[in-house]
Design brief:
This protein is α/β, with parallel strands linked by helices. The chain contains 13 helices and 9 strands. Helix 1 runs antiparallel to helix 3, helix 3 packs antiparallel against helix 12 and helix 9 packs parallel to helix 10. The protein is rod-shaped. It starts with a strand and ends in a 6-residue tail after the last helix.
């Protein structure tokens, strides 16, 4: 059974003050005008016998309606809440999309198997985060939709081989665009995109998609495959420029564990910075204000206070 939590418990400190005020009012409760406090009992009895003073009705044992109204309002302001257990809401708070270059220049590289190992190590940092996989060459395809089964993603990575993507070329901007669409459609609010590439095909279109990813609150990290064509330094510089636009970092294959650590904590840090924890609680204080209408109606009666 869910436990009730008070979001603003300090408001309850006013309730003992209200109880003390109610106690004092009960002590002073008597005839109208408190004549019984200043007149001798014999004179008071005589005045009542002559009909000059009517016996006043004592306050209710429950206390004045005004005190009950104030007490209910204080309890409402304290924010009694229950934790929201909506699986879909929790699932879509954070997510990672892996984007893998499946063009021949990558798959035929001697370091391809090391790149696969680095990608699997990165997967180990996800925990319960959902992940998706996009592969590309001349076009981009979703190889695996968002899933919390990282084992399935790892298995799909093992199936990437030459000819898997029939379109020739290397167009990373199409894959980055698809990754951004996946995060947007799933309403991810603290996402990551991890690009595994040798840097081929990067240009203004890829930079534009990296900016789109960063603009949506996500981050583009890159696992850089240096390549064996002799232009590794040039492609590294292009990757760093792309990652900078995407608010991310370039990692070498040997730095996969560092990337995994970053993925493990990035979502939590960003959620704390945006104060999103309150989204998990349903505040029922507003409904207590409806209950407060009852003593408020009693206050409209003459002499209710």
């Amino acid at each position: 059974m869910d436990e009730i939590t008070l979001l603003r418990p300090l408001w309850l400190l006013f309730i003992p003050i209200l109880m003390w005020v109610g106690y004092r009012l009960r002590q002073k409760a008597g005839v109208p005008g408190d004549w019984g406090q200043v007149m001798a009992p014999q004179m008071m009895a005589a005045m009542q016998a002559l009909g000059r003073v009517q016996a006043g009705a004592r306050q209710s044992r429950l206390g004045p309606p005004s005190l009950w109204l104030a007490g209910i309002v204080m309890l409402a302001l304290a924010g009694p809440a229950l934790q929201k257990r909506d699986a879909l809401a929790f699932r879509n708070l954070d997510g990672v999309v892996f984007v893998v270059d499946a063009s021949p220049s990558v798959l035929e590289d001697p370091l391809w198997q090391q790149a696969l190992t680095a990608a699997r190590i990165s997967l180990s940092g996800l925990g319960a985060k959902p992940a998706a996989l996009v592969v590309y060459a001349g076009d981009a395809y979703t190889a695996s939709a968002l899933t919390s089964d990282t084992g399935q993603i790892g298995l799909t990575l093992s199936l990437i081989e030459p000819g898997l993507v029939p379109d020739e070329g290397s167009r990373p901007h199409l894959a980055l665009s698809r990754a951004a669409d996946i995060l947007t459609e799933a309403k991810i609010i603290a996402g990551d995109v991890v690009l595994l590439s040798d840097g081929a095909g990067t240009g203004t279109e890829a930079l534009a998609e990296a900016a789109r990813i960063a603009g949506a609150g996500a981050r583009l990290s890159i696992l850089h495959l240096p390549g064996s064509t002799g232009d590794g330094q040039a492609s590294r510089a292009e990757m760093e420029a792309l990652a900078a636009v995407g608010d991310g970092t370039v990692f070498s294959l040997a730095e996969a564990e560092t990337l995994a650590d970053q993925l493990a904590v990035s979502g939590l840090n960003r959620m704390e910075q945006q104060d999103l924890l309150l989204l998990y609680w349903v505040d029922y204080g507003r409904w207590l204000l409806v209950l407060a209408l009852i003593p408020a109606l009693l206050l409209t009666r003459k002499g209710a206070i």
